[in-house]
Amino acid sequence: MANAQTDTADIGVIGGSGFYSFLEDVTEVRMDTPYGTPSDSLFLGELAGRRVAFLPRHGRGHHVPPHRINYRANLWALRAVGVRQVLGPCAVGGLRPEYGPGTLLVPDQLVDRTKTRVQTYYDGETRPDGATPSVVHLGFADPYCPEGRRAALGAARGRDWEPVDGGTLVVVEGPRFSTRAESRWHAAMGWSVVGMTGHPEAVLARELGLCYTSVTLVTDLDAGAEAGEGVSHDEVLKVFAANVDRLRSVLFDAVAALPADEDRDCVCAHALDGIDTGVELP
Fold it and tell me: What values do phi and psi take at 163, rounded to 5?
């Protein structure tokens, strides 16, 4: 474990395993939580004068598929080191022809089409440590932090990357891509992009009183939005690799633009006000 001076952070980034290599004086912190172990260690360091914790969502080497990520452990571990604001970049498919590869979209809405993922801390079931959470029903009408979205949009524009301001991210179970019929249905519903992560990250962050902002990079047109054979894994990796440096710069600028913890006054920061969760949060 790291010492008290280096094992804390106030901003978390859940994303690519290589992002933390750009931090200064990186400290690797192995974590355990009441919900098991996170996808990987946390990598803590300083960026733009802020203490940041990076967590590889799929683990180093990308060995954890989206439906098997321990989302509860990931968010709990971040809060345990002091994180109160989280950026969650992810690769997505575009559901409209105008949202082609290379589009950066900062969603303001979320649709859950996952099937097997545990998506609450407050289920009334006794944990291995003996604590029993209450059954809690939190509001989630607006799933993303308005301050975080503002920071991400401003950061993208500052890098001459005109982002799409708002839209709906639909999250599917994975690891397979959508059928053409599913993709066309998603588009017909008016949703903007489709991915396999981002939920339940957003709702778990809200349950911990954390600000959460999704930043989506379109790597392909989804099967129903294009002709031909549909999306392939190789195509996704190729487009992501071509844009990762640019995305990294946007995320780093967004980190610098996020408000100080003591200045947070958004719905996320007050999500648990007056609520007895039945457990002590880290």
Answer: -85, 160
Q: What distance lies between CA 72 and its chain's CA centroid?
A: 12
Q: Which residues are bridge partners to 36 per DSSP? A: 33
- Is the pTM above the cut of 0.90? yes
Task: Give the model confidence (pLDDT) of 119-145 as tens digits.
Answer: 999 999 999 889 999 999 999 999 999
Q: Is 173 exposed, middle or buried (0-12, 13-18, 19+ CB in 10 A)?
A: middle
Chain segment 31-87, per-residue pLDDT in tens: 999 999 999 999 999 988 899 999 999 888 888 999 999 999 999 999 999 999 999
Active site residue 129: no
Known catalytic residue at 160: no
- From the candidates 32, 222, 234, 273, which is the catalytic residue? 222
Closest CA to 107 of 240, 215, 225: 215
Cα 102-108-114 angle, rounded to 5 deg: 85
- Catalytically annotated residue among 220, 234, 253, 276: 220
